[in-house]
Every structure is written in C-alpha cells, then in structure tokens.
Amino acid sequence: MTDAPDPDYPPRVPLPVAVPVFPLTGALLLPRGVLPLNIFEPRYLAMVRDAMAATGAAHRIIGMIQPRSRQDPPSLFEVGCLGRITDHRETEDGRILITLTGLNRFRVQAELERTTPYRQVMADYLGFQEDREDPAALAPAARANLEDVLQTYLDSQGLAADWDAVKAADDESLVTTLACVCPFDPPEKQALLEAADLATRAATLTALMTFAQGPGPDSSNSPTLQ
C-alpha cells in the first residue's frame, strides 16, 4: 500500500548527496510506497540510529538497494530508492522495527570510502526528478488489462484478492502494492524499480504476471520467435 506524500519531507526539501544504503535482496521500495523492516544486525542498527540522529536533508533517510552479487561485500545494482523512516520502534530484545516511506529513486554515482560499519554512496537523482510528483493516471485499457491479468495470475498461484479493494485502489497504489508483494525474482524487482514511469511499470508488471503463469493451453500452436 502507499501513503500520502510525507508532510515532513515536501518536494522543495533538497535530497541528500551522501546516502547510507541497506543492500537487501528482493526488497522493493518505490516512491510513496512503504516497506516495513526488522533491523537486528549491529551495522544496520547503527545505520538506523545515525539516520534518526542526522540533521538536514539526511534526517531519517536510508537508501534501499539490491545487491547484485553474492560476494562479500556484494556489488550493488545501479539504482535504489531513498526511504524516510516514518515509523520507528525499539524492542526489548534490541531490535528496531521501522517503516520506510519511499521518496525518490537514485543512481549510485560512487561508493564512499568506509567510515561507518554500513555502506554509503554518492547519490545522483538525474532522470528521477518526477518521483516526488503525482504520476499520470493509467489509460483505462491498461488498467483493465492489469486487473484481468492479476485475476488469472492469482488463480494460477492459488491465491485470492479483495476485489473491492483492488477496484477501489488508485493506479499508483495498485501497481506499487503488486510490485512489492508479488514473489518476483530480484532482477524482475529491479526492472520494476527502474521503470521510467507508472505506465511503464504497470506494463512491466503485467508482463511479469503473464510470464509467471507459463504457456497457455494453445501455446503448442503458437509461432516461435526466432
């Protein structure tokens, strides 16, 4: 689900240049989306506490990004998304439960020399200037196709949905929620993150759900692409 634009971080506030990053496979944060996280590793506990204590543009800011490799430390995908900590609770056993609200995508310009237990990058926002603005609505045909494919996708996965909620959701809320909760592979999640706009993301999502259902009953008679 998505939240309303964060009133404590309006569009006019500059975005930070140096960003602490949390590499997490399969985690997808999109602008205006929400991501709950259970923080327990010491380096990321330190990251959350530093973000909460930071001032200016870096206050409460963490960058979510997927690792590209399994090496230690892993290489990172080029594009991630800033999140602002909008909910924060420490547990008796030393964990921190947070909710991130997506602000703006970024491209990794360079990784900073390590001075903290967690990694930090120089963030470039070129090409993502519209992330903090409301997106254009989907074309009616694209919305209808998305809902049709969603229904067959859920049937193929043995899942169900609250169709009243699906029908009532605005375009961005529906696309963002589905992109985040559907069990796609990390490269597929990355493709959804890097989609240029809401229409492209919806088309990518529709294609991924269609592909996940496998070949249709008439696929044996379908032409083969060369």
Key traits:
23% strand; single chain; disordered N terminus; 2 domains; Archaeosine Trna-guanine Transglycosylase, Chain: A, domain 4; 5-stranded mixed β-barrel; 6 helices; alpha+beta; 226 residues
Polypeptide structure, described:
By secondary structure, the protein is α+β, with helices and mostly antiparallel strands. It folds into two domains: 18-132, LON domain-like (Archaeosine Trna-guanine Transglycosylase, Chain: A, domain 4), CATH 2.30.130; 140-212. Helices cover 31% and strands 23% of the residues. It is built from six helices and six strands; from the N terminus they run E-E-H-E-E-E-E-H-H-H-H-H. The protein has a five-stranded mixed β-barrel with strand order 1-3-4-5-6. Strand 4 (79-90) and strand 5 form a beta hairpin. The N and C termini lie far apart (40 Å). Mean pLDDT is 90; it is low at 1-5 and 219-226.
